From TrEMBL, chain A:
Coiled coil: none annotated. It comes from Ancylobacter defluvii. This is Thiosulfate oxidation carrier complex protein SoxZ. The gene is soxZ. InterPro entries: Ig-like_fold, Ig_E-set, SoxZ, SoxZ_dom. Residues 9-101 form the Sulphur oxidation protein SoxZ domain. It holds the Pfam family SoxZ. It comes from the Bacteria. SUPFAM superfamilies: E set domains (SSF81296). Transmembrane segments: none annotated.
UniProtKB/TrEMBL annotation, chain B:
Residues 56-143, 157-249 form the Cytochrome c domain. Belongs to the SoxA family. Heterodimer of SoxA and SoxX. Residues 1-19 form the signal peptide. C-type monoheme cytochrome, which is part of the SoxAX cytochrome complex involved in sulfur oxidation. The SoxAX complex catalyzes the formation of a heterodisulfide bond between the conserved cysteine residue on a sulfur carrier SoxYZ complex subunit SoxY and thiosulfate or other inorganic sulfur substrates. This leads to the liberation of two electrons, which may be transferred from the SoxAX complex to another cytochrome c that then channels them into the respiratory electron transport chain. Some electrons may be used for reductive CO(2) fixation. It comes from Ancylobacter defluvii. The keyword Chloroplast does not apply. It comes from the Bacteria. The lineage of its organism: Bacteria, Pseudomonadati, Pseudomonadota, Alphaproteobacteria, Hyphomicrobiales. Heme c 1 binds at C72, C75, H76, C110. One of its GO terms (molecular function) is transferase activity. Substrate binds at R214. Its main location: periplasm. Its cofactor is heme. This is SoxAX cytochrome complex subunit A.
Automatic annotation (TrEMBL), chain C:
Residues 45-152 form the Ig-like SoxY domain. NCBIfam families: SoxY_para_1. This is Sulfur oxidation protein SoxY. It comes from Ancylobacter defluvii. Gene3D superfamilies: SoxY domain (2.60.40.2470). InterPro entries: SoxY, SoxY_para_1, SoxY_sf, Sulphur_oxidation_SoxY, TAT_signal.
Length: 106, 257, 157
């Protein structure tokens, strides 16, 4: 089950810079940790995050193990037109999780 | 090393100060002891990672489970209405088992006896999700432990456990959280140990965990053998803690360092 | 003897890291030495081009309660137009097992040269934010963070 939390304003004026926050439930296992049995816990992190809006990627990030568990990022974009902002997280295994939020731009 | 020294210091303090209950007017949530940065993470739902567990709980709430093919919502409807203030009243007396039960135990009981589904183990993601979601419905409401005579014995037992020295460090909960809550243990505030925000997102855990997990951590800290999850001892402690924190507002999901 | 010593060091490393509230970043000492220095990491990002100080503001609390989630905000002075904007912002640390933290890609449609995230810091150390602008210039800002030791650590088992 995908657990993501994105906040995008419901409405905005054309040209307005809007604040966006995105978070996903993920342990961001560093690969440096040892389990109780002394075995290394294999690395498993979200490697890439991207936000697409109005046909274009407006922000993206490449994460390393030093990004906190349940990675959080806050950024902005310019409101251009009504539609969906889509968010995409890709982990080490290439597994993709997505979220989207609608905005009405006037 | 550093924490051992800190504990030794706490031990000395505990020897000097006489454990005394915190007067109601001086009761403060753990939030008051946190840095502005950690408080800011908790205050904003868009940045509070505990909300991810609330979301998971919300979807589990609506998901049919077990042989009954019923969801929590099938019987309880909208959690915002039916579960409002429930967490503020738990632990409560459970007539079926004839013993006090905490919220996680009650959810698990519903799961097995009403939904006829497999039980949810303590600290499982599902039980934490549901507990956090139900707890969240009481956010902002004061902790209101029921004045049920059937709970008196267990609550008194909880108080006794809270004040019992244990472990190699020979400290009781009360040694730190009644007598030395103004102090610091290494870099950390000692705090008054009020269960205002459980399940909490703890930065150290990098995840949401229960009050019992937190208490187990403290017990390991004083080098005591921790009580088992779901044990009568922990329920008794939870009962006493709720009474001790009566009137403080619930914050679920709280964020703690 | 050798085995015992290694075990001892490993255990100590674990306890120390745990003390910092960060079992996550505990690792054998040999691997810790293999990481590039802060300067090498920055050079890797800029391709060795000169990095100027200014334009970038790295905002991080000087003292944090837990190194597992340290809030970081980077703001770069830029009009964020098609002709003049921030292309990338990279974050590097001095003392984690790996120097890299994250690299963010921005553009005119990002609107502001500003972002926030939460990162892990294994211990007290220096952080640096480097911004690459659309004219190919690099700007940076650094900050020192003190990570206090957590008093109570929890058994992993």
């Amino acid at each position: 089950m995908s657990r993501t939390l994105v906040s995008v304003p419901k409405t905005a004026k054309v040209g307005e810079v809007i604040d966006i926050r995105a978070m996903i439930a993920h342990p961001m296992e560093t690969g440096y940790r040892m389990g109780p049995n002394g075995q290394a816990i294999p690395r498993k992190i979200i490697r890439h995050f991207a936000c697409e809006y109005d046909g274009e990627e407006v922000f993206s990030a490449e994460f390393h193990p030093a990004v906190s568990a349940n990675p959080f990022v806050a950024f902005s974009t310019v409101a251009t037109k009504s539609g969906a902002l889509t968010f995409r997280w890709t982990d080490d295994d290439g597994k993709v999780e997505t979220a989207s939020a609608e905005i009405a731009v006037s | 090393m550093a924490f051992r020294l800190a504990f030794a210091a706490a031990l000395l303090c505990a020897g000097i100060a006489v454990a005394q209950e915190i007067p109601p007017g001086e009761r403060r949530s753990g939030t008051d002891f946190m840095s502005a940065e950690t408080r800011a993470i908790q205050a904003d739902d868009g940045s509070n990672p505990g909300m991810l567990w609330v979301l998971q709980g919300e979807s589990l709430w609506k998901e049919p489970a077990g042989a009954s093919r019923r969801s929590c919502a099938s019987c309880h409807g909208e959690a915002a209405t039916s579960m409002r203030d429930v967490a503020a009243r738990y632990p409560a007396f459970d007539t079926a088992s004839g013993a006090p039960v905490d919220l996680a135990g009650k959810i698990d009981q519903c799961r097995t006896t009403r939904q006829h589904a497999a039980g949810l183990p303590r600290e499982s993601e599902e039980l934490l999700g549901l507990s956090t979601y139900v707890g969240h419905q009481s956010r902002g409401l004061p902790i209101a432990p029921p004045d049920d005579p059937r709970l008196h014995a267990a609550r008194a037992e909880g108080k006794r456990l809270f004040e019992t020295r244990m472990g190699q460090l020979d400290l009781s909960c009360s040694s730190c959280h009644d007598a030395n809550w103004r102090g610091r243990l290494g870099g950390s505030a000692v705090t008054q140990a009020h269960p205002t925000g459980y399940p909490i997102y703890r930065l150290e855990w990098q995840a949401v965990g229960s009050l019992q997990r937190r208490m187990r951590g403290c017990m390991v800290g004083v080098r005591a053998e921790p009580f088992a999850y779901g044990s009568a001892e922990f329920i008794a402690l939870e009962l006493y803690l709720a009474e001790r924190a009566a009137g403080l507002a619930l914050e679920t999901p709280a964020v703690r360092p | 003897m050798n085995v015992r010593e290694t075990g001892l060091i490993g255990r100590r490393g674990l306890i120390l890291a745990g003390g910092a509230g960060l079992l996550v970043l505990a690792l054998p000492p040999a691997r810790a030495l293999a990481r590039p220095s802060l300067q090498e990491a920055v050079n890797g990002f800029t391709g060795g081009k000169p990095v100027e100080t200014g334009k970038v503001k790295l905002d991080v609390p000087p003292l944090v309660e837990n190194g597992n989630a340290v809030g970081v905000t980077v703001a770069v002075e830029s009009p964020m137009t098609a002709g003049d904007h921030v292309r990338r912002i990279a974050l590097f640390n001095e003392k984690n097992p790996q120097a890299d933290v994250a690299v963010f890609t921005l553009g005119p449609r990002t609107g502001r040269g500003r972002l926030s995230t939460r990162i892990r810091l294994a211990t007290s150390q220096t952080l640096i934010a480097v911004a690459e602008l659309s004219d190919g210039s690099y700007w940076s800002s650094s900050a020192n963070v003190i990570v206090t030791l957590a008093a109570c650590i929890e058994d992993l088992s």
